[in-house]
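Bit of a strange request maybe. I'm writing a small parser for structure token strings and I need a real example to test against, not something I typed by hand. Could someone generate the tokens for this chain?
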Amino acid sequence: MSLAALSELTDNEHESLRDALQRLLAHGAILREEQRDLYEWCQTRKAAVESLAKLAGLKIRWEPQDRLIAAIPQSSRLLRRLRQDETLVAMALWYDFDRAVQEDGKAPDEVVFSVREFNEHLETKFEGLRLPSPNRLGEILRLMERKSLVRVSNTATSAGLAAATIRVLPTIRFIIPFPSLEEWERQRDRHTRAGAETTEESSDEQPQD
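Reply from user aminoacidic:
Good idea to test on real output. This should exercise your parser:
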């Protein structure tokens, strides 16, 4: 569909198209389980969605097997620069999702674990690096939730965030697209080396007694 053909849409369809673009820009994906009507409408107007998304600097990925529509930024201006602790959490989520699906045989929509388990595994993945505090981890998970990478539930228990449940969404494969576990390991090693160098520099700068 050309841009001129967008004028052929009805007012209601224009509103749906606007809603779709706004959600893709703000959250990175449209999930059928949460926005069924909008998801189904987009499936019937793929060309219109792709045309408008292209103008906004997005490439659309249609993933019917995962029942989601993902938007991949094609411009650096649309990318959010992650802090190191945010990057480490995102990498850990990708790793846990990949392992659960590829090695444990779980379905992509069944990757679930507690925040306590995730935090323990985070420490083993990135030994020697400064990891987020519990409060900071909560902030990062809320960011990941806004970007449609996870869903966090059971947060109102007396045990606090540690007992909450993380469900990693299949969108993580497309938003954080490591081509292989080997590439993930290379990136992990790079962060570990950078962290070690930073620690050494900080130690060298300590005043002498």
